[in-house]
Amino acid sequence: MKLFIPVFLLFVYLNANGQVGPLRNWVDSEVKHKDSKGNSVMMTNSLPKGGGVVYQNGKKYGYVVFWARMSNQSATPIELKLKFPDVTFFKPPESYVKIVLPKESMNIKKEQLFDYGLTNLQSLLNDESNQLDILQKKIGPKEDYLFYVTVFIHIKGSGSARAKFELNDKELFYKISIGSDTTLIPCGSLDFKN
Description:
Elements: H1 4-18, E1 27-34, E2 40-46, E3 49-56, E4 59-72, E5 78-82, E6 88-89, E7 96-102, H2 121-126, E8 131-132, E9 135-139, E10 144-154, E11 161-168, E12 171-178, E13 181-192
Antiparallel strand pairs: 1-2, 2-4, 3-4, 4-10, 5-9, 5-13, 6-7, 7-8, 7-10, 11-12, 12-13
C-alpha cells in the first residue's frame, strides 16, 4: 500500500502534465514603422494555418489562414483601410489566389486553435455576406487591432505559403509567396491622423 500511493500520484502528475503541450509562437514577422513625426506602428504577421480544400463553382481551392496585428504605439490614432482585388494571378497565368477578409473577429486567444479558430471556410469562399468588401478601422493610441486574412489558392504545383503586410509611406502592400512564386499586392493604406 505504501508503494501504491506514490506510484498513483506520479501517474496522475505525468498524465495531467502530459496532456498540455507547450504553446507555439505563431508569429512569422514583426516590423516597426515610423513616420516623419515619430509616430510608430508595429505590424505583426502570423505563420499560416490550414491546408484544407474547398470548392467554388466546381473549382478546387486550397486555403491558408493568416492573422495580422496592427499595434499603434503612438499617441495619435491610425486609420487602416484594406481592400484586395478579386483575384491575384501568379505564374503560370492559370494559377491565382483569392484573398478574403472574413467578418469574424480575431483575438489572440484563438492563436493556438485550428485555423486560428476560423470556421466554415467553404461558406466563407462562397458566401460574400461572410466577407468584408473593405476593412476600415480607426486604431486608437496604444491600441492593437487583430484581423484574419484568408488566402484561397488555385495554383499548379505546390509549396509553403508565407504572407506579410509591407508599408511604403502610407500605402499598404500584401506580399505573398507560395513555393517559388511571390507577388506584391497593393491593398490599402495605413495613415496617422494628426
